[in-house]
Design goal:
Pfam families: Response_reg, Trans_reg_C. It is built from eight helices and twelve strands. The protein is α/β, with parallel strands linked by helices.
Length: 228
Amino acid sequence: MARLLLVEDDETIGGALARSLTLHGHEVVWSQDGGAAVREGARASFDLVLLDLGLPDLDGIAVCRELRPALPDAVIVMLTARDEEMDVVLGLESGADDYLVKPVRLGELHARVRAHLRRAEAGGHQPPTELGDLVLDFASRRVTVNGGELHLRPREYDLLARLAANPGVAVSRDVLIAEVWDENWFGSTKTLDVHVASIRRQLAAAGSVRMPTIVTLRGHGYRLDPPA
């Protein structure tokens, strides 16, 4: 059982999602506006957040920016009726890990929730991996550079960990989407590119010389090259 924060102002949609998630064994806290969601995130911990972008008080992207530092280890999944790519990109850059387009299909929702929660629990028995000054501790899901921690979002960590599992080996976009997000992914692969860009910014900001490099392989995917 996981603890979920559902942020949805529509009574019909929110009620249906809350009932369905509860029947699947999760504890659900339902907030019907952005302000209430921010307060819930500040006072309690959650494993996963389902966040509607079209809220009546605060914009969902603003709520996401507030929730991310308050819930650094939670997976944030946006619920959006907006089909423009820029809205999705803004949401991902504000701290979200994934998105679902309304009307939400319950089967896909539950599959996506299970996949995210399963990946959040994985990695506890793997030894740490060192790539130059970068260290990935799978048991604690921490990434450090010379002892200082990088505060990666859950899917950013999963993506970096997947690439770090085989340094110097090319990994296709399809494999990364399937293993880091969902093998039945229906959304835009722009999600992958946004997360890679964010990881690159954080690795560069760490200011270390002995760092791995994420290489773009056009038409294929990505590769993590260890430092020379």
